[in-house]
Amino acid sequence: MANTAHTSSAAAAGTVALGDLTVNRLGFGGMRLVGPGVWGPPRDRAHVLAVLRRAVALDVNVIDTADSYGPYVDEELIADALYPYPAGLVIATKAGFTRPGPGRWVPDGRPEHLRSAVEGSLRRLRVDRIDVLQFHTPDPNVPYEESIGALAELQRAGKIRHLGVSNVDTDQLARARRITTIVSVQNRLPADGADDDEERDVLAICERDRLVYLPWAPLGGGSLASDAFERVARAHHATVNQVALAYLLRRSPVITPIPGTSSIEHLEENVGAAALAPSLTDDEIAALR
Fold it and tell me: What is the pTM of this model?
């Protein structure tokens, strides 16, 4: 049973500037809304539409998705649940993978693929311009500059408002920024400290230059069930997942977690981390590092 003592509003996490947009620092990731293997429709479509609506009711105003989730299904669910979109809601989608089957992911950074992917996302999300388009992953078979350059052209054409990158190292981030303005980085940064020096360097660049850092799989690192996480959770009458998200919120002012779920109960639990974060003591934060 999720702990609801800290369920409040994503606004309790504070805000961050995503380009010229302002979003609350606790978002929602849509990957878990689709079928097993991130493939096909959900088992209960009505329920996942209710999850999305509940997220917005809890003041979540940045939702992360991708054309590859489903594929295509996730973007359609978001539009079916939330269109016409409420003022201030930011939909961030991604392009750069093809999906030959459940659980299978093939990078595709060819400019022609990215152009087609963006056009498809525009249709499915029912928008004239994508708020934030993130290049999902570098393609080892395509020069990185060609992929980013194609997205920058689409941005200049008015089809993308802001560009972000995902699954990048410091060199790839620098190369992307030489071509265009990058407002966000979406990399794997689990709350249990299972990151490495390279990822800490990427985060340091984001902090220095005020790029939003969207950690994917924030609750799926290694062992959140450590003595430290459990001890802090007991002290605050919270769940371990709430402590993990609260820790990430405290770790850096640019970190904006985007935990995903297909459960309203777990959604409310996750949002509760926003109110929990300010109450963690410095000693508790140090113990969780």
Answer: 0.94
